[in-house]
């Protein structure tokens, strides 16, 4: 191989490529399956075998995901087609973030460029923190 | 209508995800997210350059480089770069990393036991007592009792599962305020280890104010790893590490540390420095602690605080600190090439991770291989959250609540941190310390965005040091294989 492997992960990739003659699978190449420090004292090759032999997680049946919001006359934005909120194109709590830019039904949010740059400062993950969004009086 | 068959469009090459860096006139790629490092040769670099300006088909790349490299060589490099995923095919992204949680029953490697929450110092910046504390001091017993400590040891061996060796770290408050318990707990842990056929290793962190000859003897006899929290020379140490009457602690601890270093020879002894806006002269502190006092290793960590405290480090301060880290890192390189010891542990730890090619799903082992136990036996993510009901994942008497633990693991997985998904440093950083995030953003799940530039810059420095060592003294890196 003309590319020279430098660290141990690179060695393992080259070994794999030379043995398989194929593009390695995601388990080998992608990496983040090992929690930090979990490798300590573990034979890496044995771990690879375990990773390759292990079953991939079952992929749950994916619900239909519409592109954008619902049609104009469909009961759409507040409820989904089953009358609930589970099938909306975005979780309702994220509407403020996801519907104020290019959305068909734009949500009205404070001016975050000039007057309220920190409006979302306490709301790192909208689904958890939406209650922390404060009302703004211009 | 024409009968001509529609040829499938040729495959188009595009750059993959990597960070390139240079060392000793060579160019290396740090591949993301695999964390593999390859040294490039001229044709490989030319392929990357050609794809850097536009996506091209293999034939176009070969054609473009025809006056510099034979077609066969270029085609070979394209294959190799595709193989290691430094480049990819347009419209066919590499398979996403599997979104897997660690298996249930993941073994505990390190248990941090908060033997007391009381401290005889009153350091202004302390995360346990300062303005950014998350646990009110009077909400839990101030001292752990022996029964809880024994239950904790039993819990540790049970959670340790298949691990033959477990680490028990004593922590506080000031750990040595509860030395009596510490001694009894260590003896009990030794006995239990023999009974269950495992090994246990001890360490502790102390502010050194309470060290005395009999304690030092006990530490040495029991091979207890000792880390001393100290911030530097007298004027630095006495600025923030003070007794509650405001008196500095330097003159009290210096003779005790010298005694410790002279008589505790069974384990290397390290210093742990908290950097604040008031002590950013990293090189001066390092020299003082290693050459003048004699610590084997020194690790530095910027203070965890809200950005508004007068000791919190400003952006300019971080830049300054990083500059000093870099200078020490280059000193480390020279020492490594000369096969000499250099005690800058920040760079050593990062080099080890780079060498192994770790690609982390979590920034640390908190709540997984590492757990913190509060004085009342509640088990938290790590020692920094010990005693916080919000971050409790179980108790030593009832065990870990696996549902709470896995809920937490799901929420903190790198795949849940959208901000990190385009960052090349994520295999090593994975979003950073949960406690830091909690202090800054009020939640452990947010990546530490205020650190990003700094982390990338520091990772790049360590990669360059790593690359330089691999060129000048590759034998040095073999010690990380152990």
Question: Can you summarize this structure?
Answer:
The complex is a heterodimer of chains A (138) and B (482). Chain A is an all-alpha fold.
List keywords for this structure.
heterodimer; A: 138 residues; mainly alpha; Quinohemoprotein amine dehydrogenase; 25% helix; B: 482 residues; alpha/beta; Outer Surface Protein A, domain 3; TIM Barrel; ten-stranded mixed β-sheet; three-stranded antiparallel β-sheet; 38% helix; globular
Account of the 3D structure:
The complex is a heterodimer of chains A (138) and B (482). Chain A is mostly helical. Chain A has a domain at 68-133: Quinohemoprotein amine dehydrogenase (Irregular), CATH 4.10.940. Chain A has 5 helices and 1 strand; from the N terminus they run βααααα. The longest helix of chain A has 13 residues, at 8-20. The termini of chain A are far apart. Chain B has 482 residues and is of the alpha/beta class. Chain B has 2 domains: 13-89, Outer Surface Protein A, domain 3; 110-405, TIM Barrel (Alpha-Beta Barrel), CATH 3.20.20. Chain B is built from 15 helices and 15 strands. Chain B has a 10-stranded mixed beta sheet. In chain B, strand 12 and strand 13 form a beta hairpin. Chain B starts with 12 loop residues before the first strand and ends in a 10-residue tail after the last helix. Chains A and B meet through strand 1, helix 1 and helix 2 of A and strand 4, helix 3, helix 11 and helix 15 of B.
